[in-house]
Amino acid sequence: MKLTRRVFMGSGAAAATALAAPMAFAGGHGKPRVVVVGGGAGGATAARYIAKDSKGAVDVTLIEPSRMYYTCFFSNLYLGGIKAIDDLGHSYGNMAAGGVNVVHDWAVGVDRDAKTVTLAGGASVPYDKLILSPGIDFVEGAVAGWDLSSQNAMPHAYKGGSQTELLKAQIAAMPQGGTFAMVAPPNPYRCPPGPYERVSMVAHYLKANNPTAKIIVADPKPKFSKQGLFQEGWGKHYNGMIDWIGDDFGGGNVSVDPGAMTVTIDGEVSKVDVCNVIPAMKAGRIAELAGVTDGKFAPVNAIDMSTKADADVYILGDASQQGDMPKSGFSANSQAKVCANAVRGALTGSRVFPAKFSNTCWSLIDTNDGVKVGATYEATDEKIAKVDGFISATGETADVRKATYEESEGWYAGITADMFG
Amino acid sequence: MEDGSLQFNRETIFALAAFFFAGMAQASGAGDPALGAAVFKKCQSCHQVGDRAKNRVGPQLNDIIGRTAGELAGAKYSKSMIQAGQDGLVWTEETLDRFLESPKSLVAKTRMSYRGLKDPDDRANLIAYLRAFSKGSTSAQNVPETGQGAGIQLDPVVLATVGDAEYGEYLSSECLTCHQSSGSNDGIPGITAWPTEDFVIAMHAYKQKVREHPVMQMMAGRLSDEEIAALASYFNGLE
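Structure tokens for the assembled complex are given below, as produced in the milestone run.
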């Protein structure tokens, strides 16, 4: 007997879903549909793995507004002059060739009852499983005097691409002996060592090009990731250039004036030449619009990254509230693989294996002076829980630090190949 | 006529130079086989040398000096390496030096994913070490052998565990954040096409913290015997 699609769908258990969903983009194949929003370390990896491993049995659509993805990881090395901007850019061409339907548009709404995603262009994309990996947005009013309209005067440069290039241009244009200020973010935020690697790389650039320049960091935290390693490195390579003001010394009591280019730290006003404001973070807006956030981020079940709010909506990476993992590209990539395995299993009946997560964050302090911190994680009923970890030691030899940096280059090549194919 | 005489001169000069440099290296001790043994550690995840050396990911390296490229029976080569041998590539100290500096510059599509040994002293020491295991050498008995694994004790039952390749494929996704599925090495070694036994020994050596590397000790540390076997089974099937 020949089964037409209509008969098959009409008689199948998927009937309700299929009929409720408007056929706009991917629909009509009779295959289960996965929609992934956000083509970064979480979303690109999940889309690619589901398409690759299901061998065409699942229809995968990736919604990502950018044609070229510029990684936020390694962007500090561009600020330091160690990498070129082109080294950080990746296209979605291989992913499309690998069977993912790549749609360059903004997702602007999610209807969880109808199971559709609305795009800025007006289309509505139906899904059986929705994976949101939107990264971060900034909390309004987090730094007094700053809002998104100030991001050209005072860049955040905490999303890869044009903001990174803007900050680099501003650093290059600093007068001799000028001041670079950073307003560091409160926990939790994307890439815990990121602001301090950035300080190191800006110092690296200034030491060569503007050696009398100063760096001030106003930090709302009393301590930070890899602090001992960074401060040892700052003393060794950039002695006297960097003034880190932690919460104990009023670093959290800060306001900025983007018009006057001033920063006020604990009542003391400083005129600065560049001001990098990294505000408090929250999940990318679409997570909030989908109604799966609780507070700033979206709580998830550790076993498969499904949201607490909706078993058919998953959240990966920085936007998720999952437990012990840091918000990093590596973590998002790791979570994506667990999620992809679970989603494929749910849709096709393929084997679902136990969740295993891992993360390593490399940071560069100066040329060939690399350090790293990492951990493994497992899923418990409450959260993603840390199992084991390590961190580079202070006082390591130059050979060890160089090997660590070279390893980070290998990781960059590895993860970007893993994300984009 | 002019071409003929030019070629003759060039060959003569080349032969003289090779003779001169070989003599100088010997006299000055530029290549130290004992130091080369330490450099060889970078090679031994894929290559063996010495009495019990076998072909593994790469060919065994006894008598490498004087061997025609891509011709050793039982070893896996790229088409490009076999072609290079047919075109006359013979491993001499000079050709090895060029290959080790940048493998893909000499043989574009070699399976050897190593990015290259940039330090000329390291290369000279490594070549001196390999020379000790080649014909005409009398010094092999004075040179430490490094080709025989990481010195760990494994229960034969563990080694004989047959892995679940499908589980291995899932577990491998964790490896692929750093180790590229293409086998390319941009600072982190490729791990595809490893003989199963070598893979299992290497992972247990990390797990037992005999083999150094904080990330790998951590990653291997939480894998069960079955999971290591599953990974080995999966990676062995990748080319």
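Residues 48 and 95 of chain A are 6 Å apart (CA to CA). The first strand of chain A starts at residue 33 and ends at 37. Further analysis is deferred to the final report.
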